Amino acid sequence: MPISDWFKAREGRKYTTTSADAPGDLPDGVWVKCPSCKHTLYQGDLDRVADVCLHCGHHFDIDAPRRIELLVDEGTFEETEAGLTSVDPLRFNAAKPYTESLAKAKAASGLPEAIVTGRALVGGHPVVLGVLDFRFIAGSMGSAVGEKIARAFRLAKREDRAVIMVTRSGGARMQEGMLSLMQMAKTAAEVGRLASAGLPYISVLANPTMGGVTASFAVLADVIFAEPGALVGFAGQRIIEQTIHQSLPKNFRTAEYFEEYGMLDAVVPRGELTTTIALTLDYLAGAGVPAAAEGAACRIVSAGGET
Amino acid sequence: MPISDWFKAREGRKYTTTSADAPGDLPDGVWVKCPSCKHTLYQGDLDRVADVCLHCGHHFDIDAPRRIELLVDEGTFEETEAGLTSVDPLRFNAAKPYTESLAKAKAASGLPEAIVTGRALVGGHPVVLGVLDFRFIAGSMGSAVGEKIARAFRLAKREDRAVIMVTRSGGARMQEGMLSLMQMAKTAAEVGRLASAGLPYISVLANPTMGGVTASFAVLADVIFAEPGALVGFAGQRIIEQTIHQSLPKNFRTAEYFEEYGMLDAVVPRGELTTTIALTLDYLAGAGVPAAAEGAACRIVSAGGET
Amino acid sequence: MARFVMEFERPLAELEEKLAELKRLDIAVTPELADEISGLEAEIEKLHETLYAALSPWEKVQVSRHPERPKTQDYVEMLFDDVIELHGDRAFGDDEAIMTALATLDGRRCMVIGHRKGKNTKENIKRNFGSPHPEGFRKARRAMKLAEKFGLPVVTFIDTQGAFPGLEAEQRGQAWAIAENLATLASLRTPVIAVGIGEGGSGGALAIGFGDRLIMLENAYYSVITPEACASIIFKDATRAPEAAPCLAMTADDLMRLGLADEIIREPRGGAHRDPASVFASVARVVGEALGQLAGVPLDELVEERHRRLEAIGVYDE
Amino acid sequence: MARFVMEFERPLAELEEKLAELKRLDIAVTPELADEISGLEAEIEKLHETLYAALSPWEKVQVSRHPERPKTQDYVEMLFDDVIELHGDRAFGDDEAIMTALATLDGRRCMVIGHRKGKNTKENIKRNFGSPHPEGFRKARRAMKLAEKFGLPVVTFIDTQGAFPGLEAEQRGQAWAIAENLATLASLRTPVIAVGIGEGGSGGALAIGFGDRLIMLENAYYSVITPEACASIIFKDATRAPEAAPCLAMTADDLMRLGLADEIIREPRGGAHRDPASVFASVARVVGEALGQLAGVPLDELVEERHRRLEAIGVYDE
Ligand SMILES: [Zn+2]
Ligand SMILES: [Zn+2]
């Protein structure tokens, strides 16, 4: 389904409750339960507050179309490379054939691939936006995702646009083997080329951003934002535990943790994300500095005026 | 005394013993006692092994002229800016007038300033060499030292030479106040300009290299070597102890310590320093790569030959 | 909250206290008491005048360290709009002793970099009293490079006793981090305006503390070494700092005389903390003018001129 | 010292042991014994042939991990002259899991960067079994930038199970360090030749593992994920790695088939450790030729071509 259809379809969509103990006797509308504070929330309310729990601030995971809706100036999104999808170059078949995983992912997400890319305006700034969708094989990066990212960067370079990437991913897509691993190098190369052209790149690390996606284009942005509570990292949690034989700190590798350890520019609540990105673009896309005045002479100024 | 005179004077020089318990009944020649292993050494032997203790490897502190003698291709050193010396811009007089310190330093070292700079060949490579002399107000950097360093870098840039700096210093020279502090920025700027010209810069951190000298040109080199056991750092040892209220590890801030903590390229024994620098210059000054052959085709090579 | 009294203000504070005591007396005002009060008032006024008229270097150091003196974060909050604070060095940590932020002064988009002291003990512990570790300098450097890439002028606020002299700071390359910043600042292809707002302690100050302009608040100091450290070296006694201070040529006036500062912003009598609003207004105006002068200067020329500034620093004989 | 026996060699090792036992028997050789011996010898020879003739991917993984397999430091020592090892990232530490060195191959000045495993337990602990921390990747990056500045071609040796999956490694930005290297390598303005000599585990391998040429030893592997980790994800059972290995297209031959490798260097039967000298000679020759081909290519062209190589990677539908 092209993204434009999706937006139409969305208008009539209904969420079903995510847990069995949702109040059943309430009037029309649907309800969800916050996994963090266990409050029951009306979906209509969540829609108005960018899917953030009104009670505890928990950020619900959201899919690519919803993210786009929240980020871009209304009606400005034009999808690009919508027809680009994965194939099965290795005829991968361990436990489950890759083709089957792909078919399921397409059905579950209604998307042709794990990333949606397109032109848009954000706060009036022309951008190319890419958003990974976790429902599609855990937002993993194979050849198609890598190629769509590469093309997004090249498009931005061609059309003098900033790039915004919102990541939610388990990492490189195992089922395409080395072709997936090399997408890390390929996307990193494109970040470098955009940078050489002096165009801004902002990334948003959403929950979760892991492995080969973190370790390539996601963290190479000029400014990195992350959503509260988002899990971010390279190695898998279980592998780390097995390696170091100790339990990990409670907030290990959350967005807040990495802000403290200097890896991010800021953790930004979803409700402020769009305006923060738009403002950042105002800075990075050049705000038009007034022309130079005459040369300065040394002089002394007092708090009350010149002396 | 110009450095050339110094080399002449040196031929007739005699060292006196540094401790009272040197054997007095030995034949002609002078003896020194190793401060590390307490062995008594014949100065003639020390001369042949670059002033390194034959018994324990202790590196004796050496002055600028001796360092130059050890480093450059024989007879190639031409001093530059020999007439550039310090004045007393602040009329500094706390505890002791700066002018007095300067006069004493000149008398003690026989040098007009705390650094000797000049053109030379090292392993056949044209370089500009700068060597700080600790005897001159602890090798501290004031306006004159900063200016001589800046000119050394500019000379190298003009004449397409590499730069080698050998540092032994307590840091910025207090007695010239902010003028000294600003030499840090001034010398760092010159390192940057040499780098833009693609010319190599090698530094050698000798014992000790501290404060504003470490935190400016000394550690901005393309390749940083250090002598075994050399003390290197920014803050004074006593200030650190007072600040953190704990005693410091035994090898704290030695060359070996900073090699382990990733701050240096290598700790190089003095006896290997000249050849190591010459070889490094061979790499950095361009070794003449053969011209390109035809394009490669994919092919498979076996251990025994092509297949 | 009682006003913090600096050492040199103590005689004045004592008189003021005595006056307050007299005025609190719940008795009829006798002519003798009225005389005493007006005498005290006159004495206070006179002392006020002489005490603050020409502060000595050591007194200025005290003013520069006054706990209520406006700090980097106050300037950011009061002068700038649209602030986005940026965190971290992307390699080791986010040093809160340094603040980096995208910020807008009177419509001009800038990158602000400053030492950040705390306003109370708790904040000061978090921010290490404004003394950065290497990751703080590297955080600043990242901000510089970002500013350069996108043509944002850099405004720095200098206010530190110095780089932190600790074991881990040395281990992680305090000298290396400072040196990298010096080289970066010296050749940064965007305007750099440095403002001394309080303490300017040695290499830790310099690491974000020079550029195309150096603007000094009247009572800010900037020194190769703190007076205490200097005294402890030359007199073997840190308490003799008041004697060392005048030798170091570290006041704003000294820096003007030496040709190192471009402009001094006069403070209200007694120090910036007595009337922060007027200081904010002056800083906004002076920095704004400097930004205006430097905007549009071709970058090659800008950097060439900054190099010439540096080249010219130093007094020697040849 | 007994030769290390890989899992798949066990049947052969058992026969060889039995043969050795028979030969050790201190009795007169009866015709029956002689027959048994020659029968065993024939069996061994046959098994030898079939066993090593076409190693499965999982068997190759075992060969690539053989403790006696030549390592980065062996190649540096045996192939290169005038070696100057460079240490450290100039920010945090000197990670011994990465080796960086100025080194000369047949008169050509190069920068060598390689993962460095140990040759024994003690060395392996020091070098963390060749699994770098972020400071290791940053050390490599410093070497890349130095090479670029002075026009030295870069030769990398890939041999790691992967970036170290530890708490501190993550804390100090493992992903960030790897990503920086990828961007740096992709646009480095000097030739880059990557040689897969053993294990090529995921992002930790890639961080120094691509460039203008990718040369693979026959039994080296290079994979998006180790077969064990893959098996533990898809089968919930790491011991099923032998089943996962062939799915991942990770052998040198696979990489040639996928157009990712440029050249395969055949190893002696049984693996490089059986005759290191011949492998050193081949690697020297192939790397030397690649250096020759790339030397003198204008840098714009070189980087453009490297970008084209990367752009071309991937199979998809549109
Ligand atoms: Zn909640
Ligand atoms: Zn000794």
Structure characteristics:
heterotetramer, A: 307 residues, alpha/beta, 2-enoyl-CoA Hydratase, Chain A, domain 1, 2 domains, seven-stranded mixed beta sheet, two-stranded antiparallel ribbon, 10 helices, 14 strands, globular, disordered C terminus, C: 318 residues, 14 helices, 8 strands, binds zinc ion
Summarize the amount of helix of chain A as a percent range.
25-40%
Q: Shape of chain C, please?
A: globular
Q: Can you give the helix content of chain C as a percent range?
A: 40-55%
Counting DSSP E segments of at least 2 residues, the number of strands of chain C comes to: 8
Question: How many strand elements of chain A?
Answer: 14
Please mark out the parts of chain C with pLDDT under 50 across 5 or more consecutive residues, or reply none. none
Separation of the first and last Cα atoms of chain A: 70 Å
Please indicate the count of domains of chain A.
2
Mean pLDDT of chain A: 87
Radius of gyration of chain A: 22 Å
